[in-house]
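Still learning. Any example?
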Amino acid sequence: MNNKQSTQAIISPDPMSHYSAALTSQKANNYQQALSSYMQALDQIESMDNTTQDMDQLQYRITFNICDIHIKQYETTLANTYIDKALQIAHKLQLQDKITQCLDTRGEIKRLQGNYDDALHDHNQSIQIKRKIHNMEGLDISNSYDNMGMVYKDQGKYDDALTMYKKSLNIKSLKLGDYHSQTADTYNNMGVVYYNQGKYDDARSMYENALNIKLSALGDHHPHVAQTYNNIGMVYDAHGKYDDAICMYNKSLKIDLSVFGDRHPNIAQTYNNMGLVYFHQGKYDDCLSMYKKSLEIKLSVLGDSHPRNADTYNNMGLVLKNQGKYDEAISMYEKSLQIQLLAFDHHHPSIAQTYNNMGLVYYNHGKYDDALTSFEKSLEIKLSTLGDHHPSIAQTYNNIGMINDAQGKYDDAISMHEKSLKIKLSVLDEHHPKIADTYNNMGIVYYHQGNYDKAIFMYDKSLQMKLSALGDQHPDIADAYNNMGIVYYHQGKYDQAASKHKESLKIKLSTLGDQHPRIAETYRNMGNVYDAQGKYDDAVDMYEKSLKIQLSTLGDHHPRIADTYSNMGSVYDHQGKFNDATSMYEKSLQINSSALGDDHPRNVMNYEGLGIVKSNQGKYDDAISFYEKAVTILVNANLHNHPNLAKAYDNIANCYDQQSRHDDAAAMRQKSNKIRSLEQVETINQTVSTSVVNQSQVVRGHLPVEHDETTDSSEDRQIPSEQIGDPSDDHTVNDDHSQMQQSHDQALKEKQYFNAYQQALQQGCCKNKVIRAMYAGPECVGKSSIMRVFTQQQLDNFSDPTQIVDQSDRMVHLKVYKIKDRTTYSLRQIWDNNVYQIVISQYENYINSQHKSKFTVELMDHQHRNTFIQSTGDQYITDTTLTSSLTLTNSQTDNNSFSMQQLQTREGQLPHTTYLQSMQEWLTSIIGGNSNQDKMIATIDNDQVLYELPIVILVASHGDCLQNKQQGLDRFIEFERELRTKMPRYKSNIYSSRIIFNCNPDDNSDSTLAEREQCSLRLHNIMKSFVQSLPFMSNPIPIRWYIMATILHMPIDSDKNQVVSSFINQIRADRVHKIMTIQEIRSLAQDFGLYESDDELIAMLSYLHDLGEITFCPHAGQYGIIVTDVDWLLRIFRAIIQLHNCTSNSFSIQFLYDEASQTGKISTKYIDHVLAPYKLNHQTKNSIINLMETYDILCAIKNDNDQDEPYYFVPYLLRNDVKPFDLTEYHVSDILYIGYERNDIPYIPDGIYHCLLSSCLKQWNNTKVTLYYQCAKFYMTDSSHYIIIKKVNSHIALKYCYQKFDDPTDNKKIKEKAKMSIGNKRPHDIVKKKLSTLVHQRMPKFKRSIIRYYVRCKECDLLTFIETENQQQCKNLIQCQRCNKLFKSQSIRDWMCLNQEHNNDQQQVAASELPTHKEG
């Protein structure tokens, strides 16, 4: 029969009519009728004896359409059967387009079945065939890209998915235009990927593009429109817009029900999504109802092991967990995980989420190690698939933080929550409930630390967000009230605490039922309040209600049950039921020790409670033993300032009193008062007073429950809040008591002022008005004179050019002046005035408003307020002289004072360098040591130039020594040229003023005075231009920083009229020492309300350090050392390292001085002698030595004989007239240089070099190190040779030498020994690593510079760096990077090619001796 005959001529009318009817039904979405007609047509075709190609084509179309219907009905097994049949027919017909159609469809079926690898294989095979057919990218290939994108999306490979969708979109836009329904499909798919990545705005944009196209192309009742509504609803849900989300889901559900009926997976997914919204709203019964509907449909359509079932099991587990049904929740999660591990790669995000959710249940069961393991598994998977900024990553950080908190690792917990918050703020709306969760969780950690004000602040931020997002009947709101009640309880506001707990209970009972663990928490907290109020029967009733719920839901060994037993023990003790109390405390201890370990802070309350019981029974030794156990736990947990530690000290003191050990009792109370004293907090203005509270009675405490729920499947949640109580009282008096009226009015005013002060202390700030500068340059060039001329002081003749006349014993001299008119001020006066103005502003605000809303005060520029703060030009400069250039700097804190510090130097010792070398030294130290990378544009003399911080302004002195002005200008320009040539790296840091001061004190003629004023004004205007261009001048400074400076201040300015209150002086006497640890500073700040966080404390200390108020050494001691008397420290340093002429007639003392100056080594006898005038105790002296060792100022030398007197290596000591080494009797290697390119670091300062020598001595400790000026020789005992380290501008020069012998055999042995040591131990690598580390640490501006080895070229005599130690170099041959010529280098032979066969192994050994450091 002819194949070209029409289908109608070949096929009987019956199959064709059934086919046509089926098509009509299928297009109308009447799938059952379509299937019936298709099957009738197939039956008729298959009953024919002979089939033709046309018959086969019709059979293919029918089979394919049946498959399509089964796919739409999610009957994937039947769909797969029919697509295989269709593929067989396509191969029989050899129709390539039909084969690709079947492959794409089968790939989609595999994707729906979770068989992703096979799905990708089918789609790739389809694309290869399509390219052979069409030889171009057509619509059929775009469809394959779409299909592959969906597979990658399901696998969690989002970037790959987007790549596929973008390829598809490009083709569709070109072929179909921008408003075709297929284009909409791709937009929709891209939206799904963005949603999964947490990019909600991008997702919504894609969905709305798709919706507009589909409504136009398909009408408003098409399933594709329904799916888009569903997707938009998911975005609204993620954004916390729950009503909008439900609206979208209802639109989707209405369409799908009308099209598919009630047994389709699309219906199941919409039910699931609606359940999620109800879950987020806390409507758990509605939520569970939706999930059950969804699961029932999925099981009937997809079977038992489909990944979508895992999602529903997971979500049901979340609801059951939140309902307190933990065993049922675990069962759901295990079902989910079992399915996912079979269906997915083990790094799929869905598996990560299930691990996360299982961790939550373990957390609620108190199984913290298991919980942490689950969370860490989840985090590892998420980071590998989602990147660093997905909300799901934030969720897991949050959960790990809660585990750290539960384990008492509070710093780790805060760190995790801050990571979580940073991610959320970057991707979510600023009022999103998830952000509120993190603020709440941080509040919980602060509560556990005893930082109640900080906890309140965090709770309040969280509560306000959740009220606006969730309404007032959500369980999270109940948790917020619960947490507020806890803080009020600890503040002694019991009525307010009880009120909040009742509000919490009311909401929880209505939303959670009466058997939820959260209900138990609230009952227990109410019991705590009743106990504190003396309502013991009510308290026991609350505890018993709590315990009943906990035992039924949590089992017998949960830490929360232990807390309830502990609280019951307290009530029984109050009732005198000591045996019952002891039993309760012991039960609590047993549970906590089993679940958390013996040293967990939760046990503190039990030991404290047992101590109280024993004390009440008169068993004081037993009581003290329990209290001491509580102290040990708190101290070991680094809770040195926790209120419970103060309670323990007080309780021990009470026992000592009962035993008549009053001195011991006093010592304990002194420790307690340092932690929990409510002493008066008084500023210079003496505006605030509060009474000292000293509790001598037994101090009791409870451990209230805070709700600390961690994250669930799609969120991280917990609790929040704060409320500032009304401090005003209602005083009622009659006319006969006018005196009493005045007293009450005064008391009210003081209370209002105190409240204003407290608020200002927490949140008040003022603009930074001061910057820092210093005069720097060589000695004896007139720095002090320029400073005095500039600040309008009288010039004097100096006996010592570097000493200040009015205070010859002072190392630092501070002068403050206003940048507007150079009027001098006291820095303390400026600060105190700032504090006063902020408090007054808040006081007026408080009186006018009479409410307690949260506020922030910023001191503004008002002329009528204060003469110091009246215009934007009122910045202040505090001058000190350090060394003829003026250096304007901004250090690490960006909040610096313009300080010009004047330091005394060694008497009679002039630099052994040229003026240019000295300037190189200073410029490199100042610029390189500054970490600020900021840039600014400054306009001076109409030149607008970009500068880098710090700014160096060049000025000159000794103008009176010049023959004429032109000579001075010529020399200034010549110096500029030299500086640019030698130090091009600093071109953006230096401004040359060409100002030359006449500082001759004997010349005070009118013309000279006018000239000085002209120079000063010129310099002042330059400084002013820079100051007003600095980006950090408006930075806010908290006033608590200024108050802390007042407390720590050991006055360094010359204002002797400053009034300091006796109370401040008393604080200094009791709490402030010349050397303090960071822990002591933190305790001081906390006691006086000046502490916010450790990060802010460090910022404050850095700020005060930069101003010269203190010296903050963050790397000294365990956590850092603070020196409050800068002058005292500098005088001690000077006494040790600057070798004044010896005034003693004792030969032994004179010998110590001579030895130090000639060798650079000092003995403990020398240190004891020079420090004797300071009367230091042993601990302080050791602290100073340790501080100097930490910063490599000196280095202890281990003696071979332990009986010998200890010595210290101090490179700074060595005089420049010490003779160089005599090496005539030694074989000397060629020089190897280590350093940097001149454009990177043009000069290595002496400070870095001296520290390098000290660091090397620690590595090669021996007593035979010898020095001369800028050179050191270290003896390597085990290999009988020396290493010589010399400073040469921007490089360190290395040589080694070994002794000459007359006997050639001996010469050969010693040579081999020395070279073997160099080849194996590679001391040059050690020096290189140490120099790199020092530059990285001490010169942060240059930390990216690359350190290299250099050798001197024999052709051009310049240094050239060595790229690698290759074979060519080992043949002595190297190419110079300067002149490009090859030359033989003995340095390569002497250093790089020794024992090459051992180097690979030995380099690892040498490297292991050093701390790890990444160069460059």
Q: What stands out?
A: The longest helix spans residues 738-763.
